[in-house]
Write a structure and sequence with these properties.
4 helices, 148 residues, 53% helix, mainly alpha, 11% strand, two-stranded antiparallel ribbon
Length: 148
């Protein structure tokens, strides 16, 4: 994702607004736009990171990471590797629960279990455990400085 495209478009918008004013006003707006570019870049990165965090919260088997290469962000889908089921003692599964699922969801659960080589019961146990054990992510933020 090229942030420069968005920053250039914003500077062009400001320049067109400034063109209606005097030469001094136009130069002032151009200087302000140039000075704001690093802060705008940081705010765009924060918005992208927040969007990735929101998408990650909706995923069941992965997350969306933001990577920077050459100062440009990329969104990357990272799939969680299925955990190998640990051998359970005989009495580990002593609790029972009745679960009613819509037929379409049941089919999706059966497919996911099959892809992971697990029984539906084992897959559900792992999915519930993963959901409960997920640790909240620390808030995303940036520290440092920007150059203009």
């Amino acid at each position: 994702m090229q942030l420069a495209v968005y920053l250039d478009a914003l500077q062009a918008d400001l320049a067109s607004v400034a063109a209606a004013g005097s030469q001094e006003e136009s130069e002032l707006v151009q200087r302000i736009a140039a000075a704001l570019a690093p802060a705008l870049r940081l705010r765009l990165l924060e918005a992208i990171s927040d969007a990735a965090a929101e998408l990650s919260a909706q995923l069941h088997d992965g997350r969306v990471d933001v990577t920077l290469a050459g100062g440009e962000p990329s969104l990357v889908l990272v799939h969680d590797e299925p955990a190998e089921p640990a051998p359970a003692p005989e009495d580990a599964f002593s609790a029972r629960i009745t679960l009613r699922l819509p037929e379409q969801l049941k089919s999706r659960v059966e497919e996911a279990a099959g892809r992971n080589g697990l029984s539906v019961n084992a897959w559900l146990v792992h999915a519930i455990a993963r959901s409960i054990e997920r640790r909240p992510r620390p808030p995303r933020g940036y520290t440092g400085y920007a150059r203009s």
